[in-house]
Amino acid sequence: TSDTPEEASRRPTEAVLAATPSGSLSDIRMPDETGTERNLGEWNGKPRLINFWATWCAPCLREIPLLKALQSEGSPPGLQVIGVAMDELEAVSTFAEQMQFNYPIVVGDQGALQIAERFDMDVMALPFTLIVSSQDELITAELGEIDETEAEEMLSVLTEYEQGLLTLEDARTLLAQ
Q1: Count of CB atoms within 10 A of residue 41's CB?
Q2: 81-135: per-residue pLDDT in tens?
Q3: Which single residue of 7, 90, 132, 134 could bond 48 by disulfide (Cβ 3.0 to 4.6 Å)?
Q4: For the range 34-38, what are the long-range contacts, defined as Cβ-Cβ under 8 Å and sequence gap of 24 or more?
Q5: Whether this model's pTM surpasses 0.70
């Protein structure tokens, strides 16, 4: 099938797919929406969906109900959704009170850039989603808003990878199509 230009622009590059973290995410510290400093190592050993967003980004806001549902479903087992707000702490705090997130939100441009650097990412646009295995391996990166079908596909492949049914290369290839 032929991709539309928008679909092709969202497809991860070969460099992204080859990326593995240059160091653990464990040493990245960012405040949460209450201002309490968090260490991204808190979620080591869990498969993660890391979503970069902002309060002023309409496509980001449309994704939040889906992300809340994915966190509630918890598939693959142990899935941890993490929101990385590229915004001001005060704006995120106010917004978080209204949204009643069921997943952790961390705030800050610098920490977000550190996460992107660990996976050799040089393109940041919002929203932006990383699917990371429980072993800190980048499975895929999606630029732009994800919908339920895309999320289900990404998490299905992640589940098969976590269960040992797919190699990392096969998981990445499936999601790059």
Answers
A1: 13
A2: 999 998 889 999 999 999 999 999 999 876 677 777 776 666 567 898 989 999 8
A3: 132
A4: 34/93, 35/89, 35/93, 38/104, 38/106
A5: yes
